[in-house]
Structure formats: C-alpha cells, structure tokens
Specification:
Layout (H helix, E strand, L loop, with lengths): L1 H5 L7 H7 L4 H12 L3 H30 L1
GO molecular function: DNA-binding transcription factor activity; sequence-specific DNA binding
InterPro entries: Homeodomain-like_sf, HTH_AraC, MarA-like
Organism: Adhaeribacter arboris
Length: 70
C-alpha cells in the first residue's frame, strides 16, 4: 500500500505492483482483493480521486482565506 500511495502519479500496473510485492500477478490480485476488499484498479482510482479532492480542498480553502483577509 505504501508503494501505491507514494507512486499514485505514475503508471501503476498489476505487473509492476506484483513484482514489487514479490508475488505473481494472479496471486497478488487475489490477495489484494481479499485483504483490501476491492480490486486493485478500483483502489488505485479511489486513492487518486481522494488525493486530488484533498488538494482541491486545500486550494479552495486558501482562496477563501485570502478573500476574508483582503
């Protein structure tokens, strides 16, 4: 999970992630889905959306503060 979090801005393929985890793609996918509770691609997509949403919230928050300050 740490590898995925750190590399959300790169191309995260099943082959790459399973190699990093020292599993075959088949076994890694099965283990990931069993432990995390969702497929790998869905998890990566969700994490990317959460990261972008967090960045947007911070950006909008700073704009709101600037309006009130100025």
């Amino acid at each position: 999970m740490n590898f995925i979090e750190v590399n959300l801005d790169t191309d995260l393929s099943l082959d790459l992630i399973s190699t990093v985890a020292f599993y075959s793609p088949y076994h890694f996918y099965r283990l990931f889905k069993a432990i995390i509770g969702e497929p790998l691609n869905a998890s990566i997509s969700r994490k990317r959306i959460e990261k972008i949403a967090s960045q947007l919230m911070r950006y909008n928050y700073s704009i709101i503060l600037q309006k009130h300050i100025g």
